[in-house]
Design a protein that fits this description.
This protein is α+β, with helices and mostly antiparallel strands. It is built from eleven helices and nine strands.
Amino acid sequence: MKEQLETIRQEATARIKEAENLKELQDIKVTYLGKKGSLTSVLRGMGKLSKEERPVVGEIANKVREAITNEIDEKTETLEKKALEEKLRNEAIDVTLPGRPVQVGGPHLLTGIIEEIEDLFIGMGYEVREGPEVETDYFNFEALNLPKGHPARDMHDTFYITNNLLLRTHTSPVQARTMQQYGGMQPVKMICPGKVYRRDTDDATHSHQFTQIEGLYVDANVRMSDLKGTLNTFAKSMFGEDREIRLRPSFFPFTEPSVEMDISCKVCKGDGCSVCKHSGWIEILGGGMVHPNVLEMAGYDSEKYTGFAFGMGPERIAMLKYGIDDIRHFYTNDKRFLTQYHHAKGGAL
């Protein structure tokens, strides 16, 4: 048995030295030291030995097991080091190579338009306010002089969630909320950009979801001329100093008098062409003087306070400014379209 143990040690040592990878080394360990390994098989025969031989053979067996284990550990360390060196060699990075260019995104065209408008009005003393997109019927309609049953509600074609909750059809509720928050005790000068929703069929000029920016200025002695001057400044800033504006009478339940604003056509300089439908003018937004009922419902004394409000669509502004013919381009995530306007200046119309 002593000779068997020595033979096992020699064979194991020779195989361990020849092992070329960790898998081979693991197989050798199982072959000699596993439950069914050579060394284990020899030890099972110790029961046939005399009492005097058992301790001697047991000591030899332990030394053989220890020797094989140490050989395996040393070889494992050597193979792991070799594997690491090979991995580092194969995965070496040439730091002298030029870096791969990283594509950097930019603001969406609508985001850029909204920020440009915000900057303009902040410069004129306005604050930017936001409100919930899921709105109550009261703030979306009633507080804006649109009581239940009012025919003008049909113009909004609303997404109702419950009888009292809906997806807001304009950002005017933010104006009503702000005036109510101030309790009729201080002036208001604000714009409110955000998403709005209407039951509309999507086509080149309509979308069931779009953005709006509405403005409100309430104070003592606010006049229609203040509204015209503000909108004139806006038009020249967005479309160029050569643009002219005109105000046409219109109707909105929350303003009286109400107007729609047109800008002169850049293509024909007001002479008339196919772009402006031969009128020389292009409609851009609506506005007017805040209706006394709206002021009173918000707690303002309509004898002391007056104000103006206006609303515009960033999509329409972007389409006019950059000559875009389909509103759906803004929402289709086509990078070919979006990347055209990272640094766009001026306008096509």
